[in-house]
Design brief:
Length: 348
């Protein structure tokens, strides 16, 4: 099979011929039709220690057709269209059984890092990671939904707890996760203030329903937010960038009782800057603020997200589609922050 393969830390991916994966009793073999391309993969490739062995095939937002099932597989059938859960989990520990798979106490890593991923014609997935794609949802939309839309679903509902009449600042609102965060926050009934850098990103966020936009190049974020909220601040900040500067600006933008939700990550080993930020515990206590981490989703939330896509309550925003051999070009666009919306690859 053809695959884009990583041969060492931080190296460019190369298109090579690889053996079609063999599956175990509890695995399924998927013919890949689409795979999302986002910053998570770019950071994962560049972060020392995240890839467990080389050569490795990245890509974790997968959609395709099941063509073979292991002997112990019971819940997935040949011919079924599936997407996947990103984390490789035990399914048995306290956290997994509580629906918090991303906090698994016996994790095995991630698809595309500890096992080969979707930048290939075929991929082997554990049965428990395969999630059915509803009729009427395309492969590309399902692939993107498995992370770039499911992550906003969890962040808005479980962490920011947005409801009608709430206000939210979304930092990084024009990116592949951000444009879907804007839509999800609007679906919750919130007033959305979208912040990003660059006209294309802000225009896209506005077209997806943002009530106001702030260009981080031209305005001090807390001042701009306070001006839009009569000095009160917003009920929640969802930070997809998660740099020191954005996190501290987000804290300063919160209203009393506000919630700061951290989505993104900027590893020092990749970006060269410590992302740690300062909290004044006295101010934090007196203002009744909350700090939340939003680490991906559980499998049930992916299924719920796919249903929202099927019902057209959320629109997947894929602005560029690449062929398998052009994935490295897509990664370079992401590294240069030269994209708005989500990128994806298709394999026909």
């Amino acid at each position: 099979m053809k695959a884009m393969v990583l041969h060492g830390p931080g190296q460019p991916l190369k298109l090579v011929e690889m053996p079609t994966p063999t599956i175990g009793p509890a695995d399924v073999l998927v013919r890949v039709r689409a795979c999302g391309i986002g910053l998570t993969v770019v950071n994962l490739i560049a972060t020392p220690g995240r890839i467990t062995a080389y050569p490795r095939i990245p890509g974790h937002e997968i959609a395709g057709d099941v063509i073979e099932c292991g002997s112990a597989v019971r819940t997935v059938k040949v011919g079924q269209r599936v997407t996947n859960h990103f984390y490789l989990t035990c399914g048995q520990c306290k956290q997994c059984r509580a629906g918090r798979e991303t906090l698994c106490l016996s994790p095995r890593g991630n698809i595309g890092a500890a096992t080969d991923g979707g930048y290939a014609e075929y991929v082997a997935l554990p049965e428990r990671n395969a999630i059915a794609i509803p009729e009427g949802v395309s492969y590309v939309d399902a692939a993107v939904a498995s992370d770039a839309i499911a992550t906003p679903y969890h962040a808005c509902h479980k962490e920011a707890r947005l409801g009608p009449g709430d206000s939210v600042l979304i930092i990084g609102a024009g990116g592949g996760v951000g444009v879907h965060m804007v839509q999800m926050a609007k679906l919750c009934g919130a007033r959305v203030v979208a912040a990003d850098i660059g006209e294309d990103k802000l225009k896209l966020a506005k077209s997806m329903g943002a009530d106001e936009v702030i260009d981080g190049r031209n305005a001090k974020l807390p001042d701009a937010v306070k001006a839009l909220t009569d000095g009160a601040g917003v009920d929640a900040v969802i930070d997809i960038v998660a740099s020191r500067a954005t996190l501290e600006a987000g804290l300063q933008s919160l209203a009393i009782g506000g919630r700061l939700v951290i989505i993104g990550a900027q590893p020092k080993s990749v970006y060269g800057v410590n992302p740690g930020f300062t909290i004044n515990p006295i101010e934090f206590l007196h203002r009744g603020l909350e700090l939340h981490s939003s680490r991906y989703v559980n499998a049930a939330e992916i299924a719920q997200t796919l249903e929202l896509v099927r019902l057209k309550r959320i629109k997947p925003v894929v602005t560029q589609i690449f062929s398998l051999d052009d994935v490295e070009a897509a990664h370079e666009l992401i590294r240069r922050n030269a994209t708005a919306g989500r990128l994806a690859l298709e394999i026909n």
